[in-house]
């Protein structure tokens, strides 16, 4: 589904990704772990199309297309979704308005008819239940005054509604208490399917206890230093990143 | 279609629009007493109104143009302007919509304007019997039954001379300001609205106005009187680009609200803004003021200003009656090389009077947007409250936002609050929305509409939707 080959990227002259190679097959869950500043979030941002980063070398093929040629919205239309580490506030815009606009924008590009207000409401209520969110969420301004946990739940709610083919989840577990972590984790698990792939970016193992990845990669200094199965995450939790960084 | 294309289109209409028979319909350029007499004669006005105009003219001659605004434009040659143009006759414009530039039609369609209205806006000659005419007749009957007077001011001068005489200039006196004085001397036409005691106007006058758009000329004069306990909602202007041949517009609007009366006045202004270099475009110098004369009266101004090269406009409320309320909700957009200096004045005279000011300024391209507001509390006006919020939104880095709030409180019990913010549409916001499948322009529209929401909520329902669409069209090409 996603093939990253020798990807190099920099931000204001400073190289951050220094030759990433990664193959993500359909239906697989990959976790990218690593210490702070290793380039994990940069990788997710570059894949979603944020233009703060300059790709200096390499290529990314997503379902047969050259991903780096696509605008962020085109990537979304093609089934990509990024859950933000720091979801952005949009003052004055109600959550429900954004959700509906997003769902219909993506439906339009999949050749599906626009959802009617009543159909949309039914769908969104279903998903709210999964995420254990109150309906009042719909009528608050996007991320404005949301707690850290509420913001992350809202991101996964969006993922549930948009049903991406490839989900990039950037530090979705950060800032969550134990209960919220479980809800968010279950929300991700519920989306597991043979047709859907997930790239989880995380610093800690705790989310991976709930969402079991098929592969774990360790990123340090802009390179993937080590890959393995989910037991690698456990090892890292015990031993820390130090040994790998030195390698 | 880009904003530039729309503007070019409006510009074309502006240059090549109506063909007017200059010899018979328009006075030659220039302003003097004889010109004013001629205007009055052609309009068949009574002697007292001519005298009133001449008085205003004499006062205007003594005055000088205001220079305090944050605006930059060359001096206006008032002798180069023609001050009288007879109303357009049918048959002067295009014969059908097929003859109208398709791009203009596209804009109308984007705004969701019905076909018959499109014809009127594009200046297409319409048959005497089309659907809307009967609608207008129905409206007229309904208003008549309620005792509401709603007609051109020039007609009211004859049908209700005592009312016009009593209220004209009673809120904005002839010598109030330079452009107001000019308007008083040469005003062309406008609306007259009179709501009798205890009457709630049976319809939003906007509904009527939309299908009965009149050619009010460049010196519009409107007078609205709401007697005790009455209510009226009035919308002027239109979201659709309109034809206009005059560069200088100097309008005066006067509102009078007696005890327990409420006037809601909404404006959507989308005149030609000039090109990207600031060439052409309307100079919009407007005086708008409402007086809450009775206790518990309420006047509310709501405006969306997207057009004009220069906007100089401060819809104000004079709160005389005890417990009366003034409100000002504004969205002003300055793009291209547009300049807007707009805001409000709230003058608190009566005790326990309250006012609210919500101003949203949006600047893009090389636009300059200034909020200028005065909150004045006179001695004796005890326990006054004002809340002012001015927010500025910048798109790009060549535009400007300025805030000039003035407070003159002469009463220690006054409770005045002021909040101001300036923000930029952030790349993070746009990126966030784009990853959710929205195009860059849709993302920008969503952010901007969120910014304006508090104001749009105050517009009559059907116009709130159009206002959002208009804002979208105005901002096309603002990013990327």
Strand arrangement, major sheet of chain A: 6-9-10-3-11-12
Our measurement of the CA-to-CA distance between the termini of chain A, rounded to an integer number of angstroms, reads 30 Å
Gyration radius of chain A, in Å: 18 Å
What name does CATH use for the topology of chain A?
A: Rossmann fold
Features:
heterodimer; A: 247 residues; Rossmann fold; six-stranded mixed sheet; 12 strands; 37% helix; B: 480 residues; alpha/beta; ten-stranded mixed sheet; seven-stranded parallel sheet; 14 helices; 17 strands; 30% helix; 28% strand; globular
Short description:
Helix content of chain A is 37%, strand content 29%. With 247 residues, chain A is of the alpha/beta class.
Description:
Chain A is of the alpha/beta class and 247 residues long. Helices cover 37% and strands 29% of the residues of chain A. In chain A, β11 (215-220) and β12 form a beta hairpin. In chain A, α5 packs parallel to α6. By secondary structure, chain B is an alpha/beta fold. Chain B folds into 2 domains: 3-313, no CATH class; 428-480, no CATH class. In chain B, 30% of the residues lie in helices and 28% in strands. Chain B contains 14 helices and 17 strands. Chain B has helices spanning 3-16, 22-25, 33-42, 47-62, 102-110, 115-121, 131-146, 153-159, 161-167, 178-186, 205-211, 427-434, 440-456, 461-475, and strands at residues 149-152, 191-195, 221-226, 231-237, 248-257, 262-269, 283-292, 298-305, 310-313, 316-319, 325-334, 339-348, 354-363, 368-377, 385-394, 400-409, 415-424. In chain B, strands 1, 2, 3, 5, 7, 9, 10, 12, 14 and 16 form a 10-stranded mixed β-sheet that branches. In chain B, α4 runs antiparallel to α10. Chains A and B meet through α2, β6, β7, α3 and β8 of A and α12 and α13 of B.
